C-alpha cells in the first residue's frame, strides 16, 4: 500500500511538472503566435514546421542589440598560433562519445532518456576540465555550460554551442539516435573544448561551450539561457557560433553559411575563418524562422552565426528518424567544423 502511494505521489509530481500540462505559446514566424497543446506541437514536429516555444520568455525581445556594439574582429589574425593547434584535434573522442550518445534510445528533452543522456554528457564534459555547470530548465533535461575564464576582457564572453537533444518526429518514445542532428555538433564542440583547454593559451575574453537541452521542442534550452544572459549586466556575450549538423556533407562539400536570423558581420568573419582554417568553400543559404538555437541569441540582439554541414538545408533526410545513425557521420568532415570552432573561439576571444 505504502509503495503504491509512493508511486502515485511520484507520478503526480511528474505530471504536475510536465511543461505540457498547460498550453504553450508557440511562435511560428515574426508575427505569428498561437497557444498550442502538446498534440498540436507534435503535429508541427511531424510536419517539420520550425517554431519557437516562447511561453517562458518574459523579456521583450530585440530590445537591446546589446553586443552588436561589442567589437568582433574583421578578419583572422592568429594563424601562426591556430594553424599548428589544429593538428591536435582528432576524431578519436568524437567517435567514442557519439557512439555512446547514439546508444540512448533517444535524447528527448521531456523524458527520462533526455535526462539520462544529459547526465552522461555532463560527466564527460566535467572530465575534460574547466568550470562546468548544469543549467536546469522546467523539463527533465539540463543544458550544460563549460567556461574558460579570459584574462584582460574576462567579462566579455564568446559562446560556441550545439544542442544535445534528439527527437523521433513520429513518436517521442521511439528510437532517435540523433547522430548528425545534433550529436555531430555536440561532439565537435566537445573536441574543440578539449583542444582549447589543453592548449593553455591565455585568452583575452572568456569562452563558453554550451550544450542546449530541448532544441527540438522549440529552442527551449537556448531561449532560457539567452534570456538569462540578456538580463545580466555582465558578462556581455560577444557572439555565439552554433553548430547544428556538421557530419553529412553534400557533393561537392561546402560549409553552408546561414544568412537569415544571424549577424552579418559575424557571418562575414566566419567565411574568412573557413577560408583560413579549412580547405572548403562556403555557400550562403537561408534556413528560415527558428531554424536552430542561434535564433535564440539573435532574438535578444546578440550576434550569432552558424556554419552548416552543406549548402542544402534538407540534404540529410534521415534526421528526426531512427536512420540518423552513427554510421552516417563523416568524421573527416566533422573535424573541419572543429577547426572552424577553434578558429572562431580564439580569433574572437583574442590572445593575451
Ligand atoms: C563557473 O562558471 C559559471 C558560469 O557558467 C560562473 O557563474 C561561475 O562564477 C564560475 N565559477 C568559477 C569558480 O569560475
Ligand atoms: C545582411 O545581409 C543580407 C544579405 O546577406 C542583407 O539582405 C541584409 O540587409 C544585411 N543586414 C544588415 C543589417 O546589414
Ligand atoms: Zn538540430
Automatic annotation (TrEMBL):
It comes from the Eukaryota. Gene3D superfamilies: Zn peptidases. Its EC number is 3.4.-.-. Its cofactor is Zn(2+). GO terms for biological process: proteolysis. It holds the Pfam family Peptidase_M28. Residues 1-16 form the signal peptide. GO terms for molecular function: aminopeptidase activity; metal ion binding; metalloexopeptidase activity. InterPro entries: M28_fam, Peptidase_M28. Residues 144-342 form the Peptidase M28 domain. It is an enzyme of class 3 (hydrolase). Belongs to the peptidase M28 family. M28E subfamily. PANTHER family: AMINOPEPTIDASE YDR415C-RELATED, METALLOPEPTIDASE M28 FAMILY MEMBER. This is Peptide hydrolase. It comes from Coemansia reversa (strain ATCC 12441 / NRRL 1564).
Amino acid at each position: 500500500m505504502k509503495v503504491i502511494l509512493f508511486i502515485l505521489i511520484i507520478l503526480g509530481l511528474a505530471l504536475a511538472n510536465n511543461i505540457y500540462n498547460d498550453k504553450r505559446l508557440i511562435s511560428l514566424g515574426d508575427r505569428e503566435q498561437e497557444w498550442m497543446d502538446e498534440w498540436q506541437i507534435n503535429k508541427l514536429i511531424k510536419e517539420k514546421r520550425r517554431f519557437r516555444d516562447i511561453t517562458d520568455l518574459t523579456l521583450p525581445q530585440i530590445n537591446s542589440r546589446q553586443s552588436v556594439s561589442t567589437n568582433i574582429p574583421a578578419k583572422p589574425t592568429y594563424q601562426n598560433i591556430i594553424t599548428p593547434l589544429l593538428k591536435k584535434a582528432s576524431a578519436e573522442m568524437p567517435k567514442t562519445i557519439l557512439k555512446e550518445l547514439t546508444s540512448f534510445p533517444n535524447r528527448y528533452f521531456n523524458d527520462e532518456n533526455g535526462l539520462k543522456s544529459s547526465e552522461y554528457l555532463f560527466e564527460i564534459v566535467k572530465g575534460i576540465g574547466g568550470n562546468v555547470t548544469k543549467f536546469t530548465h522546467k523539463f527533465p533535461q539540463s543544458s550544460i555550460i563549460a567556461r574558460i575564464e579570459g584574462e584582460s576582457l574576462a567579462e566579455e564572453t564568446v559562446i560556441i554551442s550545439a544542442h544535445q537533444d534528439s527527437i523521433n518526429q513520429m513518436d517521442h518514445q521511439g528510437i532517435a539516435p540523433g547522430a548528425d542532428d545534433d550529436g555531430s555538433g555536440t561532439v565537435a564542440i566537445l573536441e574543440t573544448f578539449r583542444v582549447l583547454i589543453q592548449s593553455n593559451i591565455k585568452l583575452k575574453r572568456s569562452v563558453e561551450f554550451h550544450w542546449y537541452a530541448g532544441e527540438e521542442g522549440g529552442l527551449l534550452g537556448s531561449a532560457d539561457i539567452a534570456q538569462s544572459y540578456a538580463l545580466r549586466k555582465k558578462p556581455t556575450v560577444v557572439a555565439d557560433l552554433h553548430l547544428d549538423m556538421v557530419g553529412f556533407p553534400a557533393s561537392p562539400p561546402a560549409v553552408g553559411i546561414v544568412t537569415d536570423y544571424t549577424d552579418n558581420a559575424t557571418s562575414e568573419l566566419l567565411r574568412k575563418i573557413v577560408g583560413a582554417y579549412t580547405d572548403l568553400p562556403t555557400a550562403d543559404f537561408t534556413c528560415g524562422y527558428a531554424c536552430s538555437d542561434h535564433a535564440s541569441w539573435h532574438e535578444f540582439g546578440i550576434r550569432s552565426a552558424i556554419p552548416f554541414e552543406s549548402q542544402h538545408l534538407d540534404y540529410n533526410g534521415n534526421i528526426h528518424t531512427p536512420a540518423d545513425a552513427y554510421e552516417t557521420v563523416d568524421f573527416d568532415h566533422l573535424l573541419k567544423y572543429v577547426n572552424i570552432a577553434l578558429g572562431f573561439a580564439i580569433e574572437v576571444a583574442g590572445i593575451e
